[in-house]
Design a protein that fits this description.
The chain is about 30% helix and about 40% strand. The chain is an alpha+beta fold.
């Protein structure tokens, strides 16, 4: 019975339509990613006319989950997802731009203990004016996403 409730809770979390201001997000999984604020500390160096300026690409523009697979076997829940995160400079920035990063995510959670048994996030594609910066900040972005997803899974177990 607990496994069935866990599966229903995961389904409700993923499918429940929620939004948050200043960024596009259609469901709770996308909201969880947005709550991690993975763009918050990102900076890019931009050179123009021989002058190098550090620009904050610190505003979440959008999150889109392209596909999601969830399975439960006994007390083990496993989720695989592919999605795109886009960040941009603030409207007040002198140099405007942004980037997008497509990532593949894998999580495995023990529903009996609410512990994450395995998690991985891999950035597979980048784009936008500052897309090359993502490669240098890949660890920071993936760590923030992983922490948020694991934290939100624990919250789900506490319900």
């Amino acid at each position: 019975m607990r496994n069935w409730l866990g599966l229903c809770a995961v389904g409700a979390l993923v499918l429940q339509p929620l939004t948050f201001p200043q960024a596009q997000a259609a469901n709770a999984l996308e909201r969880a990613i947005g709550d991690a604020q993975p763009c918050r500390s990102l900076k890019a160096k931009v050179s123009s006319f021989g002058i190098t300026v550090q620009v904050g690409v610190d505003k979440l523009d959008s999150v889109k989950i392209e596909n999601l697979q969830v399975s439960v076997n006994g007390d083990v829940a496993e989720a695989r997802a592919r999605g795109t995160l886009a960040c941009k400079t603030s409207d007040e920035a002198l140099v405007k731009g942004g980037f997008s990063a497509t990532a593949e995510v894998h999580l495995q959670v023990d529903l009996a203990t609410c512990k994450t048994a395995e998690s991985s996030i891999e950035i597979v594609k980048t784009g936008g004016r500052f897309g090359d910066v993502v490669k240098g900040l890949q660890t920071e972005i993936t760590d923030a996403l992983r922490r948020s997803l694991e934290k939100n899974l624990v919250k789900l177990c506490e319900r």
